[in-house]
Amino acid sequence: MSDEIEPLGGETVFEGKTLSVRVERFRHASPAGAGEVVEREIVRRQDAAAVVAYDGEHVWLVRQPREAIGGFTLELPAGKLDVEGESPLQTAQRELAEEIGRAADEWHEVVAYHPSSGYSDERVHIFAATGLREIDTRPDPGERIEIVRWPLRDLERAIGECRDAKTIIGLQWLASTRRPS
Amino acid sequence: MSDEIEPLGGETVFEGKTLSVRVERFRHASPAGAGEVVEREIVRRQDAAAVVAYDGEHVWLVRQPREAIGGFTLELPAGKLDVEGESPLQTAQRELAEEIGRAADEWHEVVAYHPSSGYSDERVHIFAATGLREIDTRPDPGERIEIVRWPLRDLERAIGECRDAKTIIGLQWLASTRRPS
């Protein structure tokens, strides 16, 4: 927390299974803020991890139903940090195994970002995974996920097609590593 | 709405000033879903528009307090579609004037994306604006926004520093237009 934004406390106004909402108050100490108190409605939710898993020819995506937006989306494999004690990297490794049926030899974090910094504290960690190998996993039958092996030569088309923040960020990063700088 | 995701209705469980939460139910018609009914907690919030405003030397960013994440962030100028009847482009034009004090001659939409398609229907429209000129605006004294004129030669450093989804997406796009393809 920055010294210039003093948290004054608040209340939980909704407590759900996957997210909660708090109304919180803050004092702005900066000269411009001049001690003004502001109130914010803030969504609290578990952080998430996503994976840009690729080899020399393909990047591994999933197509899945997203009820909130009323359709199917093309996305990086990803999931919430909902296993006690699991690090973002471990979540990314678990999701790659569960959704794509693969493990990877090399991992590094590309970025950790806030999808909606105006009203949520959620962070999404994006990892790059290479040195992929098939592993024996039994996909969760409730997952409703289609694996999409997308050709890297068509990467720009995937960036143009997808409408999901983490996927755009991850694929733009992948495209940038493949262009002459 | 996709034919494969049938909305069954739901309830508003929180109604705030800036967002609401609904619990909604859906039936999956696909063979894989086999008629299963799922329940989702969905945050409803106004869509937003953001601007990548640049000339030959700089891109115009803002640094502002984000109480939800407890600090200041480097961001594209942006705002909610909270004026009745305003299009995403008009919101982007208004925000560029209010936050940066500039108008632009050329506009085009770079992308419209979902920041959190797992639990929110929010869409963010990112526009590119060029042909910038200074206009006479009186910044809102409550805005607490610092204008940051960021040199394009240091664009990669801005992408590395910022942690805000719309800004990463907009600046990655800008970087991609400046690299030899």
Architecture blueprint of SSEs:
The structure is a homodimer of 181-residue chains.
Chain A: E1 5-15, E2 19-28, E3 37-45, E4 48-53, E5 58-66, E6 71-75, E7 78-80, H1 88-100, E8 102-113, E9 124-134, E10 146-151, H2 155-161, H3 165-178
Parallel strand pairs in A: 4-9
Antiparallel strand pairs in A: 1-2, 2-3, 4-7, 5-6, 5-10, 8-9
Could you please describe the fold and organization of this structure?
The structure is a homodimer of 181-residue chains. Chain A has 181 residues and is an alpha+beta fold. The first copy, chain A, has 3 helices and 10 strands. In chain A, strands 7-4-9-8 form a 4-stranded mixed sheet, with helices on both faces. A 3-stranded antiparallel sheet of chain A has the order 1-2-3, with no helix packed on it. A 3-stranded antiparallel sheet of chain A has the order 6-5-10. In chain A, a hairpin with a 3-residue loop joins β1 (5-15) and β2. In chain A, α2 packs antiparallel against α3. The longest helix of chain A is centred in the last third of the chain and has 14 residues, at 165-178. The two termini of chain A are 36 Å apart. Chains A and B meet through β1, β2, β3, β6 and β8 of A and β1, β2, β3, β6 and β8 of B.
